[in-house]
């Protein structure tokens, strides 16, 4: 409920912010300098906890490595809160030069008119973007234009309890790859004590992202117009065959009693896994390392399951990217671009990957020694990278581009939850699609 | 009261206390646990170490945030007490045209949710250059309709004859306010003070909006800073910080509880 409220207020503020912004002038701001004459680049982010620590370390090293630019990272709350704040101040002197926005905010940022595409700097600088991981950077590309610089990216993976696999007589090195295998394994993994189930086979968090990924991995689109990448999306298409497969899977397993409803909270889901309440679940690749560290058993990681092996298309990324805001001076934008380039170097990306668990934007990072060492310790991390690199670049795995994504996700979650109340999968999906259509219609009218 | 009745009363009270206090007790217990223990759903930590507390102070500048929160809360409390009591005094003792109409208009602002005025307020603060400043964190909260209402109800219990007598004796309005009205309204003032301190202490969104540097940020932002979204949060450390953060509020609550109860019910019965 709180989350919905937050989203609603965020949307409201976005609108209010958009209205009030017309009063602000759009002239370029002066370059801010620090006392020592360095160009100041303010960098707003939503990285909290250990992530913020790693990020601050990288920024510190960058600031020390040269004497022209001083980057100032500022934590601005969750992605939603940061976005709200950005919308309110964009174009004024309080606006940041670099803004981190989550992947579903991509379309919104493009349409906002408050940013400048990084493609501008790529062209000016003749920067070679082919060194970036194609499957990541393509998410932030529209009409062949790179809009933002990919930064922290993750994908979903299947996480399973190896010890439980052994106990159930399953091969821990051969996790289920298809829906049928998943169902069979979950059945074996489900343990009952009397009338109560002490261990469930499988679970998916009630979160739109996992549904999107299950659809994308089968090559299914989320919205029409090639996932909104060829013109503005008008209709949701996730209620097609692929979406039904995903919903049917959840529904079937829930009915069989092998699926556990973990709710909407990431930490609840992980707690259920650690306490052996569930034996397999889908998680973000970025969370794997802490999961391995905290689990009192062996943790295995595998690709997300598909209905049939030949359907496998790969995954779309989640996470966030860095945007260059508009209305800052040329000098500041150049300084910000210099920092972005620094972030994309293999050395920095290697550090980032090892410390955060997010993917490296620059695949050369994986050849760095620290990554190799880390992979020896956590072979699970390599699996996550392999899954991404084996992804076939199609509009499906590029990810959908719609401005009302947060809203649509909420509808899908409602659909997922209605399954547990006995609503037919098809009906739940159609309902979610219908409501997404309505949101799209309203958004397109603006 | 018979002994059995006493026993049952106290047993019930203890049970109710436990239920009510459980979140805080559990937070306290989690603050000593390692990440794995939290996720396994243990109730009690296997060993007591202060590692989480150390981490909490290391991860974010918690001490600095605490000082900021204190400063901001004290300022807002003082400001609210001053503005509310003066406004309430005017509404009760000074007769002017349309007084009641203005008062009800004033009270009706309580109906407007604070979130609705947040963005306009922010733009005003921005124009005034109050961003990244204690001014932006405190001044917008000085005028409080609830506080004025609470104190007005209290001031109304002071007989008007007293005011008239003081006028006859040639005592200035301010001296009457300072030497007569305030001392007899201590309970309500303490109530309002505790209330405003606690609400300011717990503010999150506004401080996040108007600050961009760690120098002026408050403690609630620090708590949020410790919680990650996609990667599992280290709840032990978060709870350690929470325990540190709620200590002042708990202390204040225990110290001011009697007066708080009295003051709040006073306003309600009127």
Automatic annotation (TrEMBL), chain B:
Q: What is its main location?
A: membrane
Q: Which GO terms describe its biological process?
A: transmembrane transport
Q: Which residues cross the membrane?
A: 70-94, 101-119, 131-151, 176-198, 235-255
State the compartments where it is located: Cell membrane
- Tell me a GO cellular component: plasma membrane
Concerning SUPFAM superfamilies, the annotation shows: MetI-like (SSF161098)
Ranges for domain ABC transmembrane type-1 come to 66-256
Topology within the bilayer: Multi-pass membrane protein
* InterPro entries named among the record's database cross-references: MetI-like (IPR000515), MetI-like_sf (IPR035906)
Keyword annotations for this protein, in alphabetical order, are:
Cell membrane, Membrane, Transmembrane, Transmembrane helix, Transport
Q: Which family does it belong to?
A: Belongs to the binding-protein-dependent transport system permease family.
Q: What is the designated name of this protein?
A: Putative glycerol-3-phosphate ABC transporter, permease protein
Q: Which species is the source of this protein?
A: Priestia megaterium (strain DSM 319 / IMG 1521) (Bacillus megaterium)
């Amino acid at each position: 409920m709180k989350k919905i409220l937050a989203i609603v207020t965020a949307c409201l503020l976005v609108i209010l912010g958009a209205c009030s912004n017309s009063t602000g002038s759009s002239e370029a701001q002066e370059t801010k300098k620090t006392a020592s004459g360095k160009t100041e680049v303010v960098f707003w982010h939503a990285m909290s906890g250990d992530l913020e620590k790693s990020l601050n370390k990288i920024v510190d090293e960058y600031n020390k490595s040269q004497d022209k630019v001083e980057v100032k990272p500022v934590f601005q709350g969750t992605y939603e809160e940061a976005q709200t704040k950005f919308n309110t101040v964009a174009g004024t002197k309080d606006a940041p030069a670099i803004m981190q926005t989550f992947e579903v905010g991509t379309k919104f940022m493009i349409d906002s008119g408050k940013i400048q595409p990084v493609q501008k700097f790529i062209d000016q600088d003749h920067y070679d973007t082919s060194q970036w991981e194609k499957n990541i950077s393509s998410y932030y590309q529209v009409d062949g234009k790179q809009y933002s610089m990919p930064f922290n990216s993750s994908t979903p993976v299947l996480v399973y309890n190896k010890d439980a696999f052994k106990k159930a007589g399953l091969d821990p090195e051969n996790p289920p790859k298809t829906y049928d295998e998943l169902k069979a394994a979950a059945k074996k993994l489900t343990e009952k004590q009397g009338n109560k189930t002490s261990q469930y086979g499988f679970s998916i968090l009630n979160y739109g992202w996992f549904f999107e990924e299950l659809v994308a991995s089968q090559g299914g689109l989320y919205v029409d117009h090639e996932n909104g990448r060829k013109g503005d999306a008008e209709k949701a298409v996730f209620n097609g065959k692929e979406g039904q497969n995903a919903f049917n899977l959840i529904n079937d397993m829930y009915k069989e009693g092998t699926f556990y409803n973990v709710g909407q909270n990431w930490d609840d889901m992980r707690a259920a896994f650690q306490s052996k309440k569930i034996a397999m679940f889908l998680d973000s690749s970025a969370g794997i390392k802490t999961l391995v560290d905290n689990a009192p058993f062996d943790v295995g990681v595998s690709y997300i399951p598909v209905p049939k092996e030949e359907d496998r298309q790969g995954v779309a990324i989640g996470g966030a990217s860095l945007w260059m805001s508009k209305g800052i001076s040329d000098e500041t934008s150049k300084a910000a671009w210099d920092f972005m380039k620094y972030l994309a170097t293999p050395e920095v990306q290697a550090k980032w990957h090892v410390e955060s668990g997010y993917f490296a934007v620059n695949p050369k990072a994986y050849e760095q020694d620290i990554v190799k060492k880390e992979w020896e310790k956590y072979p699970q991390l390599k699996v996550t990278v392999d899954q991404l690199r084996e992804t076939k670049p199609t509009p499906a795995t590029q990810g959908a581009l719609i401005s009302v994504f947060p809203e649509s996700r909420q509808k899908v979650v409602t659909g997922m939850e209605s399954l547990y109340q006995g609503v037919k999968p098809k009906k739940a999906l159609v309902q979610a699609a219908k409501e997404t259509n309505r949101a799209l219609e309203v958004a397109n009218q603006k | 009261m018979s002994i059995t009745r006493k026993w049952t009363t106290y047993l019930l009270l203890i049970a109710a206390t436990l239920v009510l206090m459980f979140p805080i007790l559990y937070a306290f217990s989690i603050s000593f646990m390692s990440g794995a223990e939290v996720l396994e759903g243990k109730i009690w930590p296997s060993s007591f170490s202060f590692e989480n507390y150390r981490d909490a102070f290391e991860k974010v500048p918690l001490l600095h945030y605490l000082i900021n929160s204190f400063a901001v809360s004290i300022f807002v409390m003082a400001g609210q007490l001053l503005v509310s009591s003066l406004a309430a005094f005017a509404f009760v003792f000074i007769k002017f045209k349309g007084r009641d109409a203005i008062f009800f208009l004033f009270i009706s602002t309580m109906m407007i949710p604070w979130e609705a005025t947040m963005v306009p307020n922010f733009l005003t603060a921005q124009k005034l250059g109050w961003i990244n400043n204690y001014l932006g964190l405190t001044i917008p909260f000085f005028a409080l309709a609830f506080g004025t209402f609470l104190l007005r109800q209290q001031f109304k219990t002071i007989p008007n004859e007293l005011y008239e007598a003081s006028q006859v004796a040639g005592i200035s309005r301010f001296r009457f306010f300072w030497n007569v009205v305030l001392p007899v309204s201590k309970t309500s003032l303490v109530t309002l003070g505790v209330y405003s301190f606690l609400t300011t202490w717990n503010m999150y969104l506004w401080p996040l909006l108007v600050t961009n540097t760690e120098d002026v940020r408050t403690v609630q932002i620090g708590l949020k800073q410790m919680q990650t979204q996609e990667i599992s949060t280290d709840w032990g450390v978060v709870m350690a910080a929470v325990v540190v953060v709620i200590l002042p509020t708990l202390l204040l609550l225990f110290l001011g509880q009697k007066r708080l109860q009295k003051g709040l019910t006073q306003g309600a019965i009127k």
